[in-house]
Amino acid sequence: MKLLGVKDNEVGFRCVPSPVLPVPESDGTIHFTPSSTLSNSPSINRSSPSFTPVSPLSPSNMTSPGYLMMSSSNSHMTPPGYQTGSYSSSQNTSLSRPSSASQTPLSPLDGSGLRSRSRGSPARYNENDTIASMEDLDKYLQEEAEKDYKAHIAHESSPSSGTAYWSWNRTTDYSSVLRKFQYQIACRSPTSDISSRNDDDPDTPSKYSGDEVWSRLSVPRDSVDKWTEYLRKWLSQTIMNRLVTEIHSINETLSKIGCEDMQIGEVSISTLKQVAMTKCQHVPTLNKLTPYLDCHANQEYLVQRLLELGKTGCMSDFNWNGGMTYKDKPWKSHLPTDTQIVMHCFCTYFDSHLPPHPKYPDGKIFTTQHFLKTPDKPNLEKKDNLVLYQSRINPPHYKVILADDIWDLNKGRNNMFHAILLFLHHIKTKECGMLGRVNMGMSGINVLWILEQT
After folding, report:
1. CA pair distance 400, 214, nearest whole angstrom
2. Which residue among 179, 220, 306, 324 is buried most deeply as judged by most CB within 10 Å?
3. What pLDDT digit, counting tens, does each position of 44-72 carry?
4. Phi/psi of residue 349, each to 5°?
């Protein structure tokens, strides 16, 4: 028992003399019937039908507990109440570890301070699980203690344990978290197209509405959901995050050159345009940033909202029909919605990537040709229409005009994303991935990867 570190006078253990085993005169082997145990001396009856020859019992073909108990040269310490099961031959001479599948711990001890771990049949050993060192023993005892603790907790919290059933999971208070964050249900847009059939623009009725749009294009709903996720990531990481970085960089530069009172978000858009012209040698990128800020007159709210939307990787704070609190007051309709801000940034991004056109000296090439906002009406007589049409301001709603047809997508929080997806899907499938002279694939803007089939 030196391996286990148990002394002769250890509390809870008693000394058991090792039995002297009879050795047959014929071949010097000892045979056990399957029902024999080491706690009782085996009986040898060669004429018995249950007698089966086995390999000789020696330190080289049995586990160490069996050999220790069968050794006649000395005595050893065995915990009282510990029963052994059937042993098989093994070349491993280390102490076998009880198998977890049929584990049976020690029985209760009187006055020893040790308690029974569980109830069941005697432990059976698995020769593959062995305890060969003190570290293995400590690990085994720790695992057993954890199992006891989990079983104790599970018993106390089970429905059959009286009052614990009624107090289950009431110790955690989430009220402060729910007050801090706005809850948005994570579900799909309505699958029913009844609301879409009630067209908000009777002068320009839609030819396709609701889920009929995607079913007509043979696009599964699961793919649309996946594309929506990809589009949100692309908008966030390609546009919104870069805007946040550029705003911080320009404000830092303005402070260094003595223009602390000209910070982005504190002055009007017209003042920023003047600064971009007079300080172009110090802030050369401000001239490219101002179009993104030309979305709403309230620059303070707009910049704060851009910074919030660009903080995460997927615009997790996006609120399709509202925004954030402003000056400790809830969002009101006189402020831009998040949908309006993101759509403006999307159009401005494409304005900056399309080649200049003499017909559009203001630089809004994409916005002028491919975006339309009520109260303006689309011209359905044009056969080359490819337009994102905002038919309602608040709550925002978008449609897609393809040639002389109007495609009306489901209303709700994903309406803008689905409109952009339909716009890109038409470019990929009908325009060979080209928007005018610009490739929307990998050799150009690289946005069509969003529509990869999954």
Report:
1. 13
2. 306
3. 444 444 444 444 444 444 444 444 444 44
4. -60, -45
The single residue listed with the structure tokens 């089966």 is: 52
Rounded to whole angstroms, the Cα distance separating 424 from 435 reads: 9
Distance of CA 294 to CAs 95, 336, 349, 358, Å? 78, 12, 13, 22
Q: Compute φ and ψ for 283, nearest 5 degrees.
A: -125, 75
- What is the token pair recorded at 249? 């960089």
pTM for this one?
Answer: 0.59
In sequence order, what are the residues at sequence separation of 6 or more whose Cβ sits closer than 8 angstroms to the Cβ of residue 162?
none
- Looking at the chain, how many residues does it have? 454
Residue with tokens 């529509």: 451
**How confident is the model over 15-34, as a mean pLDDT?**
54
Distance in angstroms (rounded) separating the CA atoms of residues 159 and 76:
46
Residue recorded with tokens 């300080």: 279
Question: Could you tell me which of 394, 424, 390 has the C-alpha nearest to residue 234?
Answer: 424
The 3-state secondary structure of 336-381 reads: CCHHHHHHHHHHHHHHCCCCCCCCCCCCCHHHHHHEEECCCCCCCC
Residue 289 to residues 89, 171, 247, 250, 343: CA-CA distances in angstroms? 80, 50, 8, 10, 16
Lowest mean pLDDT among 78-92, 129-143, 306-320: 78-92
Q: Which pairs from 151-159 meet CB under 8 Å and 24+ separation? A: 151/118
d(CA 374, CA 392): 7
451 with 421: CB under 8 angstroms? yes
pLDDT in tens, 90-119: 444 444 444 444 444 444 444 444 444 444
Strand order in the sheet with 371-373: 208-209, 405-408, 397-402, 386-392, 371-373
% of the chain with per-residue pLDDT over 70: 60
- Token pair of 33, please? 């019937």
